[in-house]
Amino acid sequence: MVKRFKRYCKTLELENNPLLIEEYKKMHSMGKAWPEVTQGMKKVGIIDMEIYLTGTTLFMIMDTEENFDHEKAMTELGSLPRQSEWEAAVSKFQKTNALSSAKEKWQLIERIYKLDQVAENNITDGYVEQITI
To answer: Which of 60, 79, 83, 94 has its CA 20 to 30 A from that of 118?
Structure first.
């Protein structure tokens, strides 16, 4: 069985403060992210998400349903209960405005290479991927 999905990659800069970075990592450790926020992500069509850290740069890989509309989903996510509260709580760690939504904070990045790429995609529509299950 082949499963198709879209992948988006994003970056965000943290404040250059080792104590804040450690606290930010703890907020995202297993079982610490607010359940309403993770449920909201799933509700708008996010299948899986990973966030990596190097220095002060965060790198996110977000896998979504194949028919995912990034603009629409991020707007919907921002309107869900506790999402704006979460964004305010994590903003002290990030080089962003406390009132910014996740949509405003996380910047989409362009994929310029993929091993065995079979289709052209663009940054805002996501990169269509597939796995065989």
So the answer is: 60
Outline where 16-69 has alpha helix (H).
18-27, 35-43
Whole domain around residue 79: which residue ranges? 2-132
pLDDT tens profile 82-97: 988 898 889 889 988 7
Q: What is the CATH number of the domain that holds 83?
A: 3.30.70.100
The total number of residues written for the chain in this structure: 133
Q: Could you give the 3-state DSSP secondary structure of residue 38?
A: helix
Spatial contact of 20 and 92, defined as CB atoms under 8 Å apart? yes
Comparing 34 with 132, the larger pLDDT belongs to: 34
Q: In 25-132, where do the E strands start and end?
A: 46-54, 57-65, 107-108, 127-132
Task: Give the pLDDT confidence of 19-60 residue by residue, as tens digits.
Answer: 999 999 999 999 999 999 999 999 999 999 999 999 999 999
How many domains is the chain partitioned into structurally?
1
User: Is 68 within 8 Å of 128 (Cβ atoms)?
Assistant: no
CB 85 within 8 A of CB 37: no
